[in-house]
Design brief:
By secondary structure, this protein is of the alpha+beta class. It has one domain: Gcn5-related N-acetyltransferase (GNAT) (Aminopeptidase, 3-Layer(aba) Sandwich), CATH 3.40.630.30. The chain is 30% helix and 30% strand. It has helices spanning 13-28, 41-54, 104-118, 133-140, 181-184, and strands spanning 3-6, 60-65, 70-78, 87-95, 123-129, 144-154, 161-170. Helix 1 crosses helix 2. Bound molecules: coenzyme A. Residues 26, 29, 31, 33, 93-95, 100-106, 128, 132-134, 136-137, 140 line the site of coenzyme A.
Length: 189
């Protein structure tokens, strides 16, 4: 069984190593997660360190742990724009290959949606490689596809373009009396 919890922005070296391992594993598996192959563990660790320390104070990083280490993760980033205080972007849903196919990504998404709702967000957005397992998962979880952008990014081989599907999901306003955004936005601990 996996335990899902928030990750502190000053994550320790062991957690950073595990997160780097998950990102490298995703690139090695051909996933569209911003990076090209080969991705070194060092570059991946530096990226995690950077994103954790420079993100919006309302960003939320969730991790799923087994007995040994982190095996899955997902992020929520509040929109920076002052006219979008109700919107946040979900990104970097990653589950290590050794833990896939057992519902872990589904649980991570349920948790991040609940965290987003508690923090007062009412609109979530994300994009996913067309035709991949993530697109199926988001559709299954009730996300609305807006459309497909052709040739949005390259596969990890750095040559093959792939399309991306843009999704959104509306969340009901949380708390008594509706939107509690101002008073309850979470921090990333
Ligand atoms: C996309 C990704 C996060 C999915 O992770 P996962 O933990 O395997 O996802 P789930 O287990 O929740 O769902 C995957 C499949 O397992 C099935 N499943 C879920 N629970 C299950 C269970 N208890 N027993 C058997 N199968 C189960 C789901 O129905 C789903 O099937 P489908 O793909 O045919 O629809 C993972 O493949 C990954 O990390 N990919 C690389 C990174 C990536 O592409 N991220 C997305 C960026 S947008």
């Amino acid at each position: 069984m996996h335990r899902i919890e928030r990750l502190a922005v000053n994550a320790g070296e062991k957690d950073l190593r595990a997160l780097a391992e998950i990102l490298v594993d995703a690139v090695d598996s051909g996933a569209a997660v911003s990076f090209l192959a080969p991705l070194t563990r060092e570059t991946a660790r530096d990226w995690w360190r950077e994103i954790l320390s420079t993100s919006h104070s309302g960003a939320i990083f969730l991790v799923a742990r087994d007995q040994e280490s982190i095996v899955g993760t997902v992020q929520l980033h509040p929109a920076w724009a002052p006219n979008q205080p109700h919107r946040a972007e979900v990104s970097k849903l990653l589950v290590h290959r050794r833990a896939r196919g057992g519902g872990l990504a589904t649980r991570l998404m349920q948790e991040i949606e609940e965290e987003a709702s508690r923090a007062g967000f009412t609109l979530l957005t994300l994009d996913a490689k067309a035709g991949g397992p993530a697109e199926r998962l988001y559709r299954r979880m009730g996300w609305t596809p807006v459309g497909t952008i052709p040739g949005f990014a390259l596969d990890p081989d750095g040559r093959t373009p792939h399309d991306a599907v843009i999704f959104y999901k509306r969340l009901p306003p949380s708390g008594p009396g509706g939107d509690t955004r101002k008073g309850s936005r979470g921090s990333s601990l």
